[in-house]
Structure formats: structure tokens, C-alpha cells
Amino acid sequence: MADLVLPADLERAEEYKRVNPKDQPLKFLHQDGSVTESQSVAVTDSVLPDGAATEAKQDSLALYKTQVLDDYTTTDVSYVCKMKPDGTWLFMKIDETGSFPTYTYANVSNNLTKTTYALAYASRVSLTYGLLNTLILT
Questions:
Q1: Which of 10, 60, 18, 65 is nearest to 39 (CA)?
Q2: Partner residues linked to 21 by β-bridges
Q3: 10 Å Cβ neighbour count for 41?
Q4: Domain boundaries, the chain
Q5: pLDDT, tens digit, for every residue of 5-39?
């Protein structure tokens, strides 16, 4: 079996912890070309990029329940207006005016003055919409 070689500069590999099921030492290749061995690497920080679809984000999206599906205010545009039990809101705009539908999203993080569902709903057509990974989900 080939040795596992990981770059040491990947968030300081010695700070990562990995259970080694076959109890074989892990080898780390450093930038200077040296190699070190370790039985484990401690994981202390996420290396996922900003906006990654983490399990926590997926779970938080599931908490939003559709309140209104507005497919009549604007031709070829629908607004899916969702809210969590605590009043936090998230709207999805489905724009079918082009060759294919586009999906953009709005919440209080990109509409700071729309602090309630009622304010956001009243302004749903003029809200600032963006990609889901640009929003701060709470």
C-alpha cells in the first residue's frame, strides 16, 4: 500500500486529528521537502470555503416553512416567501424570464432595513436578492 502524503501547510497538519483505523503512521510532506510521521492529526478548524453547503446550513434551511407562493405579482417571476417559527425570513425569487430559471435569495443579511417578515413581504419585489452562499443564515 502506498504511503499517504499530505501537505503540512494545509492548515498546519499537526493541528488535525484523524483516527487511523489501520494504525499506520501518516506521513506529512512539508514545504521544505522534509517528511514527518504521526499516528494522528488534530482537527481544530474547518477548511471548508465560505458559503459551503454544510450539514448545519442544510438543517437551518429546513427550518424555514413556506408562507406564501406569489406567482402573480410579476410576469414570469415567482417569490417563495418562507419563515422560521422565530420570525426569521428567507425569500427565494424564481426568475423565468430568460432561457432557463434562475434562483436568488433574500433575507435580512442583504436587506438590513427589512427586520420583520411583514416588512420583507411588503417589499418582496424590490428586495436585494443574491446567491444563497452570500447570505448569512441564522
A1: 18
A2: none
A3: 20
A4: 5-38, 55-134
A5: 444 444 444 443 344 445 566 666 666 777 777 65
SS3 for 29? Answer: strand
Q: Whole-prediction pTM value?
A: 0.59
Which residues, other chains included, contact 101 with Cβ-Cβ below 8 Å and sequence gap of 6+? 94, 95
pLDDT for 88-103, tens place per residue?
999 999 999 999 999 9
CA–CA separation, 88 and 113 (whole Å): 13
Cα 109 from Cα 123, distance rounded (Å): 15
> Distance between CA atoms of 51 and 118, rounded to whole angstroms?
27
CB-CB contact of 90 with 105 (8 Å): yes
